[in-house]
């Protein structure tokens, strides 16, 4: 243990966290909630995991329909994104906040205004003490050409934003630093 470091206890988070809108049908109505606890967790099949509190309206929808979407919003959507994290679909209709479309599964509402939409079918649920870890298999993903570069999502065009907790702040993304799986090569065999 370094004598220079201060213990922060166990309640720490990743720095930064992504910010996405998770879509699900609840009682037949599209609902969207803000989520920071999300990650790709398997290569093949392509699996995406989200950690959703048991109490959330979205959790019931995903359990019942076995489908959800992960939508990556742009910074221009920041107010609507925060709103979706402040109010529950249990008491407030969030279905008309965005233009909605569906993929081949037909059960995961997705947001037209988000630069990237990922449709998932529920693969597995891991019940943790406060959260369901919903693991979804990616069925397909969509983006408009203006958000793509060389056929892949272009982070600069998408302009996503990230989250820090516990200060609860949204941040823009920074500058390009280096090419991954490449910049470290110069240390190989060093
Ligand atoms: C920035 C932000 C990130 C959030 N991340 C999560 C999360 O990862 N998991 C979670 O269960 N709730 C998270 N929440 C809280 C839910 O989005 C919030 O409780 C929402 O109202 C639930 O909506 P629902 O009841 O319609 O499903 C987050 C809220 C905000 C503002």
Give structural attributes.
190 residues, mainly beta, Pnp Oxidase, Chain A, seven-stranded antiparallel sheet, three-stranded antiparallel sheet, binds flavin mononucleotide
How large is the radius of gyration?
A: 18 Å
On the 0-100 scale, what is the average pLDDT?
A: 97
Number of domains: 1
Strand arrangement in the largest pleated sheet:
3-2-6-9-10-5-4
CATH structural class = Mainly Beta
End-to-end gap:
28 Å
Structural class: mainly beta
Major sheet size, sense and barrel closure:
7 strands, antiparallel
The oligomeric status of these chains comes to: single chain
Using the 3D structure, state the CATH architecture: Roll
Number of helices: 3
Order of helices and strands: EEEEEHEHEEEEEEHEE
CATH superfamily: Electron Transport, Fmn-binding Protein, Chain A
Beta-strand share of residues: 35-45%
Q: Judging from the principal axes of the Cα atoms, what is the shape?
A: globular
Any idea of the CATH topology? Pnp Oxidase, Chain A
Residue windows where pLDDT falls under 50 for at least 5 positions = none
Q: How many β-strand stretches? A: 14
Helical content stands at: 10-25%
Small molecules held by this entry: flavin mononucleotide
Provide a compact summary of the structure.
The chain is 11% helix and 39% strand. The chain is mainly beta.
